[in-house]
Amino acid sequence: MNDPELQALLDAIAVHGKTAKGGLNRLAASREEGAARDELGAWLRAREFGIRVDSVGNLFATLELAGKDAPWVLTGSHLDSQPHGGRFDGAYGVIGACVAADRIRRTSAGGFRRNLAVVSWTNEEGARFAPSLLGSGVYAGQYEAAFARSRSDAAGITLGEALQAIGYSGSDQGPADPACYVELHIEQGPALERAGATIGVVEGNWGTVKFIVRFEGRAAHTGPTAMAERRDALLAAGHAIVACRALSDRTGGALLSSVGRLDIAPNSTNIVAGSVDLYAEFRAIDPAMLEGACAAFERAAAEAAEVAGVALSITRPTDRPAGTFDPSMRALIEAEAKRKGYRSLRLDTVAGHDAIQLRRRCPSAMIFVPSAAGISHNEEEFTLSEDLAAGVDVLEGVLRSLLSAAT
Amino acid sequence: MNDPELQALLDAIAVHGKTAKGGLNRLAASREEGAARDELGAWLRAREFGIRVDSVGNLFATLELAGKDAPWVLTGSHLDSQPHGGRFDGAYGVIGACVAADRIRRTSAGGFRRNLAVVSWTNEEGARFAPSLLGSGVYAGQYEAAFARSRSDAAGITLGEALQAIGYSGSDQGPADPACYVELHIEQGPALERAGATIGVVEGNWGTVKFIVRFEGRAAHTGPTAMAERRDALLAAGHAIVACRALSDRTGGALLSSVGRLDIAPNSTNIVAGSVDLYAEFRAIDPAMLEGACAAFERAAAEAAEVAGVALSITRPTDRPAGTFDPSMRALIEAEAKRKGYRSLRLDTVAGHDAIQLRRRCPSAMIFVPSAAGISHNEEEFTLSEDLAAGVDVLEGVLRSLLSAAT
């Protein structure tokens, strides 16, 4: 069953940063994300939500359902996207939570024991500012706000400056007493679709390690420079890309590995590359497999540098261990899906999510809905309207239970 | 011996596009190149040179030494640079020719049988507009002017538009009757320095083939997308980079090979690359070795695409055969160096030069001077002042002979 109210708000927000192919280019704290926040803020203010913005731009839309001293149930996701991302990744979890929260507000007969806040976390994607999961990381206590505000994009603009420019460098605090956090998100994989299930009950997350490998060679003319004298940073990168994939192949694909980005200088046809920053990542459910692969990759990067005659430095900006979400919240989601007649499936998330950060501070859980063909981080990302509606329906029921729970 | 007049003009022109590290960022038809042309044009007009600019921006500074119906001796090079190039590559050949030509003008007692034109060719480097050697290619008859003007840079600006913007989209014709062309250039390799020679007599050029290999995969989230379902364009590129180098290693370095540039989309850490354009090049003096390597590379690219599950298309924008310069002009340069007491060395050029294009239209030759440590296409590119002076000294003598020759 479709949900016209949800669909209308999704469509309205998807205008900001819309690409020609129907996807989104709405980087964190960009003008487009600012416009999306403005539009959502107007929708929320018209419906009596309070708005708080903290110093890293996290936006909290609050409903004081149980009085100012009561603890808070948080729900939300993020409005930023990848450069050529889809309409649903993140935005669905914020907008779906707004629609669910507003229904609770409209039909509230009192009796709640907790307050409710919908959150849009800043810079979940990490596409503009590294690391990813930055706003939720500050709220959860992993990062200092000053560290987050000092992160800069490729043009040298800091997150603090970018937030200032769009009017979302706030001075409020998020709720000091979070009782729990639940996040609605598209699966970004094919498991639900293949199982014919509508609701994913997320059990835990894979471990993820990201590397930035810097190969420093020497720029030189590709014509007259003898091969033996070349210090070719891109040759080293080529070897590292091949080695990164081989580590996964060795596990039959149980280890996920990828190099998705190279920053090459000067990146000119007839110049031997002077330097390359290579961004590699590894993911696995098994911590030993993950750590073994990371050690092997560091050795392979050293060999690649040696072969190409270039210098090497390696940093590890992300090292997120595997973990599980709150068992009683998972049970609540599963029960709510069943009660409403949706087929559910227990599964893990391979991707990073704000909910993984929030786990540091309060019980946390996630609800997934299907992604067509599992395609995500792509303008072709798609979820059926009826699945979007089902996710919001389950979220609303889960929130009602969480708001009523004894604290 | 230093040449203060040469040095002053080199320094004045090197201001335009100067980088913090003392190199140049003066792309073809950029504002900086426009400023360099303006400054050089003012210097030339003050010395009674005529100025002609053709429809692709080639700038001809003319001295009618033998009357308007006499054939023309051409000399020159290019003012454009690589993005982080050096001060001497190209600019030295234009400025040195201006200084030599002006000395000939000032001391002329008549009796020349040919006219003289100094030329600055448009877009030699190919860093902004592909292919390289574009302006000289039009003059020499390889390309139509309309084709050259339609070439566009990464921002979609055409060469015609860029020339218009800097005031160098001309309506003049270059000299219709070129008798010969001689180009002064830094070696961009270490041979002269190692041999202790000052003047390089360039015998011929290596063959060069450039490829653009497009790998078309599918952008996808690097988390939830199973390895078997990935269509990773950057993985294919990694294999192709390694294969490109292996083809050279197999010849002990006699074949030069390089991948210096990748255009990766979307180039984001946690997205499997959707597409990569890979720029590879091969150079060799032996045509059979070059053609064998090209065929092997095309096979290797196909294998790389197969392994990564991506689509492949290959274009070959440059296919420049090996060739030799005019024997009598080479002998003239060698004799002039000897007469003036400079030690000379016969050598080949591996890099492409406008003189190779000019060979299609008239006898053509090149004079090289040393490059410190052979470093070029790098801000550290350097040639000693006394070597710069020696090159201009030899060029002046060669031009006097060519201007006096029977036609």
What's the quick description here?
Two copies of one chain form a homodimer. Chain A is of the alpha/beta class.
Write the layout of secondary structure elements.
The structure is a homodimer of 407-residue chains.
Chain A: H1 4-14, H2 31-45, E1 50-53, E2 59-63, E3 72-78, H3 91-107, E4 115-121, H4 134-140, H5 145-150, H6 159-166, E5 178-186, H7 191-195, E6 199-205, E7 207-216, E8 220-221, H8 233-249, E9 256-265, E10 271-272, E11 275-284, H9 287-308, E12 311-320, E13 323-324, H10 327-339, E14 344-349, H11 354-358, E15 364-369, H12 385-404
Parallel strand pairs in A: 3-4, 3-5, 5-15, 6-14
Antiparallel strand pairs in A: 1-2, 2-4, 6-13, 6-15, 7-11, 7-12, 8-10, 9-11
Number of DSSP E strands of chain A:
15
Largest interface (CB < 8 Å):
A-B, 70 and 70 residues
Spell the H/E element sequence of chain A.
HHEEEHEHHHEHEEEHEEEHEEHEHEH
DSSP helix count of chain A?
12
Question: What is the CA-CA span between the terminal residues of chain A?
Answer: 34 Å
Shape of chain A: globular
Q: How would a crystallographer describe the biggest sheet of chain A?
A: 9 strands, mixed
Subunit arrangement of the protein? homodimer
Tell me the radius of gyration of chain A: 22 Å
Low-pLDDT stretches of chain A are: none
Structural class by secondary-structure content of chain A: alpha/beta
What is the share of helical residues of chain A? 25-40%
Strand content of chain A: 15-25%
Average pLDDT level of chain A: 96
